[in-house]
Amino acid sequence: MTREETQKILMGIQVLYKTFRVDDGLKTATVDMWTEMLSDLTYEQVSQAIKEFALTDTKGFPPTIGQIRANVAGHRPAEIMGEGKAWELVYQALQNGYYGAEKEYNKLPEDVRRALGGAGQLRQWAVMDIDSISVAESNFKRAYRAVVEQRARMEVLPANMRPQIGAAPVAQIEDKACTEDFMNRASEDYVTSLLDRFRDDLK
To answer: Which domains does the chain have, with CATH numbers?
Structure first.
């Protein structure tokens, strides 16, 4: 959105909400800030978001930048896989998850890889009994929910302001022998530490 379009948006909000006023001494700074925060959106997207906000608003407070962005983000097509489907992909990968851990890991979607934390996790889970696998499923789904929730929050931000999502490795990795350090990273403690970091990021 351009600076001129931002001015039109601010004028529109003032028409809809009599309490929304920008002090003369802050007009330039306000327009500049709103332009920066909404620069990746089109005038049509922002205008439509404000109209929808006003039509459903019952409190009488003008929309904030965050509310406008959340409204626009809510109209984007849903591309997030459910945790059940994500686990199905992991479970399928486990069928070849010991000798082909790196290959199977690299084939998984990015969010699934983030929740796993590394190919070593596949290798470890591939040799578990059925009871242990059910625990692994629960751990994975919790981690996956955290990844998805954080990504949803980041989607509201402009692309150039989004921090790196999570800390789990997502880049493809080369085939290599499973060293002791590699297996340590795939331990239950590693999964727990990932979950703790995801929770901290979501606070």
So the answer is: 3-74 (1.10.8), 83-202 (no CATH)
